[in-house]
Queue: 2 jobs
Job 1
Amino acid sequence: MCMALLGRVSEVDGDSAVIDFGGVTKSADARFLPVKKDDYVYVFDGFVIEKLTEKDAKKILKGE
Amino acid sequence: MFKTLPIKDRELFLKYAIPCGEVLVDRGELKQRLLDKMKGSVIDQKNLDYDIENVFKVATRMCTILGANMGKSEIDEEVIRKYFLHEHEKAIQWRMQIKPDVVPERCRVYPGRVVSEDNKGVLISTPLGRVVAKTDFMDRLKTGDWVSMHYSQIAEKIPKKEADSMINEFKERLEKKYIITGITK
């Protein structure tokens, strides 16, 4: 996914979500891909662009 | 499910996206053979009926978001240029400020001007220094031409006005002390 960052949704407020990138939290725009708490997502430039299964996400995070 | 907009100008999109493909190959997310085939198709202006949306997921989705915000129903040349020439660097900075664990040199898109060209190659002056460029996607260039570069690949010729705008954005980033490490000199 190029420069996108993998994180986990910690809060959702409408179209906005707070994403935890391994301790660094940032808000993201989830208008184009609705999310729910605890989803694993790829974010780029403040936009949620992809959701992953927990299994896939953990595999990727383990490899980082 | 993220619904992407259709890519209208697939050739232009690939000219900017293909240098990212080398990163994807390094990560095992794309086969070198497919990347070479796509590159060959752009050079030979052959059929570009590849699954671009899946190969270049990030760029396609970011162009979709940008296009939707511009009121577009497809990813046309205006969206592609706005993304790669202006928004792309902002996105790199976003990433580097959260997790500066990558060398983003392959990702950078920057303007340049042809200093010299001969059968050995084309030398380009850029805000990042002089670069010997790859010209696979270009017909003949002449000294003084303005071009857009992605890594060291020339994507296309651009008007001086566009290059000036990109250079001003680059200067603003320097003034804001944004992260510019990893730049190819």
Job 2
Amino acid sequence: MEKQAEVMDKVVGILTPFVKNPDALKAISMETSILKDLKVNSARLVDIVLEIEDAFGIAVSDDQADQVKTVGDAVRLIMATGKA
Amino acid sequence: MNQRVVVTGLGVLAPNGHGLEAFTAALKTGKSGIKHHAHLAEAKFACQVGGIPENVEEIQKRYLTDEELFAMNPNMIYAAIAAIDAWTDAGLKRPVAGDDTVDWDTGAIIGTGIGGIDTIAEKLAPKVDQGKVGRLGSTMVEQIMSSGNSARLSGLLALGNQVTTNSSACNTGTEAVVDAFCRIREGRAVRMLAGGSEGHSKYIWAGFDAMKVLNRTKNDAPTEASRPMSGSAAGFIPGSGAGVLMLESLESALKRGARIYAEVLGGYTNSGGHRMGGSMTAPNPLGVQRCIQGAVAMAGIQPSQIGAINGHLTATFADPIEVANWSKALDLPPAKLPWLHSTKSLIGHALGAAGGIESVTSVLEVHQGFVHGSVNCDDLHPELAPYAARVAHQTFEMPELKVIAKASFGFGDVNGCVIYKKFEG
């Protein structure tokens, strides 16, 4: 089971190509909002979820995906789903 | 009161060169962009040669971010590179991130013949058929919709006037120029990017290969394969890429001190109705002649003022018919016909991009005063013997070239013709 820091690193790696506000990447934390702070195009959330599923070998339901607003939400979801 | 319309920018990504400097040099030296492609041989195509722009993976990084490229297929990438080049060549700056200004006066008509078929064939159809719709991700629609190439430009350049993709097969790029010209002329836009793009997917080329309209006899000699006006022409060679012009009202161009390449004197589009010898794949000669005459009439010139013809001339059976149509339409005997040449001899038939790339060629020629050599027709088609003295086999300087005619005659029996005049103030 990967530690939170490793999971967060991987998530940031997945998010990076979609980030339109590079400055926000430098100060990224669990509280960073994917849409508001990183200015990711909301249409691309679908693709980010697909990449997370592939990278961590998990399945994310539409409802679960809707709850992910921050980097921390994504990390916690990954860690919770992995344990199940 | 109609606006006069001029060309203030050019952008080109062709199989034989990217950018005006490389492309112009390629035209002048007769550099072919036709190469043998292993993937066509593996897929058992009869014609295994074609024209594909080179080094695009490197080039695209200078124009587009990873985030943008994530949702763009080759057709869209080619269009974006050429359009951005035309934009900056016109002296305009790319919008900066964070700037919310929209340019309400500038639009784009960037056509395509087939469009995002590679996205459909390689990504969409397989996943849908496997019952995996949910794995497609968010980028399918914007890549497969016919307007994908132009729609993406709206965001790249903050365009606020009409943004659309036209489609009329081989006439697409030329028609885009005509429609953009008319829009500015009527005062509905100040500037329009106009031209066409086409991807290089084997799925585009397969249909033409199956129809047996491609030349299968020169797989071992790619640069000799595209043979417009030749006696040994055996079909066209597929090409790809993009060519885009910045059309602008003369008033606007003068006001901002833009460099002006040429004036668009006139343009015309029509169809032959698949009658009188015309069909889905063959032109109605009268339709072709009416198109040429319509453009010339609108231009307000005498046919004898035309110094060169950048023809449709694809290397099919239709080439001699086309030349005869030019002679009839312009009412000029063979000995007096303008210089004849075909850019397709160097880049193949780039389909939706053809009219765009060939229009860029025509403007470069009339601006700089040269006619590029039409290669591979030393063995001129016997029916073209009367016109032999008017075929430009080699590139030559022509300082007296003031007016050039560009025409395309496409599948569907659809025609387009534009008359460009060198701008001299």
